[in-house]
Write a structure and sequence with these properties.
About 35% of the residues lie in helices and about 20% in strands. By secondary structure, the protein is of the alpha/beta class. It has two domains: about 130 residues, Leucine Dehydrogenase, chain A, domain 1 (Rossmann fold, 3-Layer(aba) Sandwich); about 130 residues, Rossmann fold (3-Layer(aba) Sandwich). Bound molecules: 2'-monophosphoadenosine-5'-diphosphate.
């Protein structure tokens, strides 16, 4: 029940209309009996919006495209991962102090470590955009041996050099082995459901294959990986894990992760 003690949380982005964060977080609040409400905001002026967090004493904010980098200058402190990634997807308001976190980075690792260890593993990340930067940073922090595979050399080399890791052209994937493969590109996303970022013959049963695309849930990549006997992790895995870490930062309580996953799956199906 919304009353005068209800805390306000939200999502800052533009556009936010298709985000699954509101259904996920509101369900988590309900499940745990935490008196809070989470709304999505299409932000037109970021600096004023952050002032609004302080003015209204909002307790926590998720930040999404296009503000993950731009928001950093308006916050008071950042945690290590946010600084290393150079982007913030989570703000926690601790007694008026706004702290920036990056739960994309830790959420990806949490989704992975539910299925495999990361330390000393050969990890191939496909793509060199913002998602690859967050996940690649998580891999390096977790002690994985990272190689960035990208379509274009300039972006791939830049990210690999920032993360002290290797770069290879995406077209060369398959000539080397990896134990963990993570797709961070939109290849395979609706409407291009038949697309796959690497040849299916390059996949094998020793691999753990993760896709951050969650529409469709079972991408061509995950289908091919499954057919070859590999362990797979779908895009909802990372999304829900980053959200669960947000919930824990904001409330200090353990996130009801199974409920969060099931409400997101329901929303995707409907
Ligand atoms: P995000 O913030 O979600 O990571 P992004 O910053 O736009 O999105 O990055 C998208 C990544 O997917 C880029 O690395 C892009 O490759 P380039 O650096 O060569 O542009 C990659 N990408 C997008 N479409 C692709 C495609 N059809 N095939 C291969 N890679 C693709």
């Amino acid at each position: 029940m919304i009353n005068s003690n209800t805390s306000l949380f939200g999502l800052f982005g533009n556009p936010v209309a298709h985000s699954l964060s509101p259904v996920m977080h509101n369900r988590a609040f309900k499940e745990t009996g935490y008196n809070a409400l989470y709304l999505a905001f299409d932000i037109v002026d970021l600096s004023i919006a952050v002032k609004g967090i302080r003015a209204l004493n909002m307790k926590g904010i998720s930040v999404t495209v296009p503000y993950k980098v731009a928001v950093m200058e308006f916050l008071d402190v950042h945690d290590d991962a946010a600084v290393k990634v150079g982007a913030v997807n989570t703000i926690a308001n601790q007694n008026g102090k706004l702290i920036g976190y990056n739960t994309d980075c830790h959420g990806a690792i949490k989704a992975l470590t539910a299925k495999t260890t990361v330390k000393d593993k050969d990890v191939a990340v496909i793509g060199a955009g913002g998602a690859a930067r967050a996940i690649g940073t998580g891999i390096v922090l977790a002690g994985g041996k990272l190689t960035i595979y990208n379509r274009s050399t300039v972006n791939g080399e830049r990210l690999a050099s920032d993360l002290d890791s290797e770069f290879r052209l995406l077209s060369e994937f398959g000539r080397s082995e990896c134990q963990i493969l993570i797709n961070t590109t939109p290849v395979g996303m609706t409407p291009n459901r038949e697309a796959i970022p690497v040849k299916s013959t390059a996949l094998n049963k020793e691999m753990v294959v993760m896709d951050i695309v969650y529409n469709p849930l079972k991408t061509m990549l995950l289908k091919a990986a499954e057919e070859r006997g590999a362990e797979t992790i779908d895009g909802v895995g990372m999304f829900v894990n980053q959200g669960a870490l947000q919930f824990e930062l904001w409330t200090g309580q353990k996130a009801p992760i199974d409920v969060m996953r099931s409400v997101v799956l329901d929303a995707l199906r409907s």
